[in-house]
User: Which sequence fits this backbone?
């Protein structure tokens, strides 16, 4: 049963998706700046690789965004039924990530990747049926 | 330049797919044994982290995050994310063949769409090649 009105329902779902996208993009941006972890681990060991990751402010901001997304999902689930909130936020996150990766990470989101984002988005939604 | 992945990197992507879905399944199984946790009984969370299923689930999810970050260090976000979505397919198939749950036609259609989506990116380059930044202009050479 859905307790919230349509505006509150979609506002909370959008908040979950937006913070998840911010978390993914910030984490991906941080990893791109840090460089190939396999190479870092070969040179500085596992501890060196962990140090390189956790000392990145961008990575920490990404983790903070992921935590915000998790808590806003918990808040959403207290007002909106799981069968709508989980697939809707996951699907919106996949689409939002494709836009944000093109915009902020300058990734080459070609037709193939757009199709992948749309197919996965629709597939995740259907899995919840 | 077309970036293709070495077999070792495909193994890391496989770890991303498997560790998340297996970790979630283990956590779910463990928490079903622990029982519902409410704000009034937060002490139950301590019992939860002594449950071997929950502990193994948490270790799997830590493994997921490590392999996810490793994958992001050499591949685009729009390449890695559809791969992680393949975990949904694995959970659905596990629930069908291990837990003997019924999969509706909608779910089979969802599985098919995700497999197609992953197939689209898996055949393409894994990393966007950015042109190197031009050097700062130094003025006309005398």
Assistant:
């Amino acid at each position: 049963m859905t307790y919230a009105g349509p505006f509150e329902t979609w506002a909370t779902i959008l908040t979950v998706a937006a913070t998840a996208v911010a978390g993914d993009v910030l984490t991906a941006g941080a990893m791109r700046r840090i460089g190939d972890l396999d190479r870092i681990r070969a040179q500085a060991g596992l501890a060196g690789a962990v140090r390189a990751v956790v000392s990145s402010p961008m990575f920490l901001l990404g983790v903070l965004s992921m935590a915000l997304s998790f808590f806003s999902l918990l808040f959403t689930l207290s007002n909106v039924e799981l069968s709508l909130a989980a697939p809707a936020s996951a699907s919106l996150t996949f689409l939002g990530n494709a836009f944000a990766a093109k915009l902020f990470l300058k990734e080459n989101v070609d037709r193939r990747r757009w199709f992948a984002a749309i197919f996965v988005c629709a597939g995740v939604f259907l899995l919840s049926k | 330049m077309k970036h293709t992945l070495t077999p070792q990197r495909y193994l890391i992507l496989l770890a991303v797919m498997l560790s998340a879905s297996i970790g979630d399944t283990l956590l779910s199984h463990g928490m079903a044994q622990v029982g519902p946790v409410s704000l009034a009984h937060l002490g139950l969370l301590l019992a939860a982290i002594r449950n071997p299923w929950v502990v193994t689930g948490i270790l799997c999810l830590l493994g997921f995050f490590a392999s996810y970050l490793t994958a992001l260090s050499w591949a685009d976000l729009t390449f890695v994310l559809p791969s992680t979505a393949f975990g949904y397919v694995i959970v659905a198939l596990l629930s069908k063949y291990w837990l003997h749950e019924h999969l509706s036609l909608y779910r089979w259609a969802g599985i098919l769409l995700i497999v197609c989506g992953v197939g689209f990116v898996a055949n393409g380059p894994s990393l966007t090649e950015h042109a190197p930044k031009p050097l700062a202009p130094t003025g006309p050479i005398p």
Remarks:
- The longest helix of chain B spans residues 7-34.
- Chain B touches chain A at residues 8, 69-70, 72-74, 76-82, 85, 88, 92, 104, 106-107, 109-114, 116-118, 120-121, 123-125, 128, 130 (CB under 8 Å).
- Helices of chain B lie at 7-34, 44-48, 52-74, 77-97, 105-122.
- Chain B has one domain: 7-122.
